[in-house]
UniProtKB/TrEMBL annotation:
Any one cellular-component term (Gene Ontology): cytoplasmic side of plasma membrane
Gene3D superfamilies, alphabetized: P-loop containing nucleotide triphosphate hydrolases
GO molecular function: ATP binding; ATP hydrolysis activity
Organism this protein belongs to: Methanococcus aeolicus (strain ATCC BAA-1280 / DSM 17508 / OCM 812 / Nankai-3)
Keywords: ATP-binding, Nucleotide-binding
Listed name of the protein: Cobyrinic acid ac-diamide synthase
GO process terms (BP): negative regulation of cell division
Database matches in InterPro entries: CobQ/CobB/MinD/ParA_Nub-bd_dom, CooC, P-loop_NTPase, ParA/MinD_ATPase
Pfam families xrefs: CbiA (PF01656)
Higher taxonomy: Archaea, Methanobacteriati, Methanobacteriota, Methanomada group, Methanococci
Domain CobQ/CobB/MinD/ParA nucleotide binding: 4-229
Length: 250
């Protein structure tokens, strides 16, 4: 059985940082892991240290062009074309495979292609033990249904009550849209001795399941500052050790 984990939250809360370290943690347990960067403003390839040339969005455009020119390879349906291209663009890295969604669909809806893509990616995901998805900021992924089949939703939050409120809204919206996650957890990020108990109280008040608290860490900030892949951070880094514990609970 594949376990699909999505990482969500407001922009700048640490989704990509957490996703990167979660991938590092899970890839120590299994190599059968698919990572999907579903943030249009994607930077997971950089933090994982795995450059990606072609995105799913590019393939969607390719198909549009080929269709306009009536140039689909003969004997191939559009679905076959998408499927074979997705197989081609997956980056096979050490410990995980990586797929980048890229820019989302523009205003002129290309709905059938989007639903084919979703279906192909869903099927493709079934061959893995774990799928980790770094989502776009906010709640759009829910209404677009990109996180419909997710087992575990992890909302990364800063210490503020407003930040935790996003987790509450994700819970509520998922309910309204009849999207069922097996679990929804909150990871509080950039936590220190001063704000720790406040975060705990706020989470309790909002009835959120706080699965971990990550400290602010200079080394992580430094990696990002100079653009070094966070995936290569020392395995004794304090934040990574915490993420490892979270990974064991998932
Ligand atoms: N625990 C942490 N300690 C230090 N810096 C952090 C920590 N978590 C995130 N950051 C930094 O905060 C910034 C935003 O994090 P990022 O993961 O890119 O957020 P998001 O993906 O949610 O927009 C980045 O510069 C990142 O390096
Ligand atoms: Mg990000």
């Amino acid at each position: 059985m594949t376990k699909i984990i999505a990482v969500s939250g407001k922009g700048g809360t640490g989704k990509t940082m957490f996703s990167t370290l979660l991938v590092k943690a899970i890839s120590q347990k299994t190599n059968n892991l698919l990572v999907i960067d579903a943030d249009p403003d994607s930077n997971l390839p950089e933090t994982l240290g795995e450059p990606v040339e072609t995105t799913i969005g590019d393939i969607r455009e390719e198909l549009k062009e080929l269709t306009q020119k009536d140039n689909i390879p003969s004997g191939m349906s559009k679905q076959d074309y998408l499927k074979s291209r997705i197989f081609e663009i997956v980056v096979e890295a050490e410990g995980f495979d990586l797929l980048v969604m890229g820019r989302p669909e523009g205003s002129g809806c290309y709905c059938s292609v989007n639903s084919w893509l979703r279906q192909i990616i869903d099927n493709f995901s079934k061959d893995y033990d774990y799928v980790v998805i770094d989502t776009e900021a906010g709640l759009e992924h829910l209404s677009r249904r990109t996180t419909k089949n997710v087992d575990t939703m992890i909302v990364v939050s800063d210490a503020s009550k407003r930040g935790l409120g996003t987790a509450k809204r994700i819970k509520k919206l998922a309910n309204e849209l009849e999207i069922k996650f097996k679990d929804i957890f909150v990871v509080a990020n950039k936590i220190n001795e001063e704000n720790k108990s406040i975060v705990e109280n706020n989470a309790k008040e909002l009835e959120l399941n706080l699965i971990g608290k990550l400290p602010f860490n200079e080394e992580i900030a430094q990696y990002d500052l100079v653009g070094k892949p966070l995936f290569n951070i020392d395995k004794n880094n304090e934040v990574f050790l915490e993420v490892n514990k979270i990974a064991d609970k998932l």
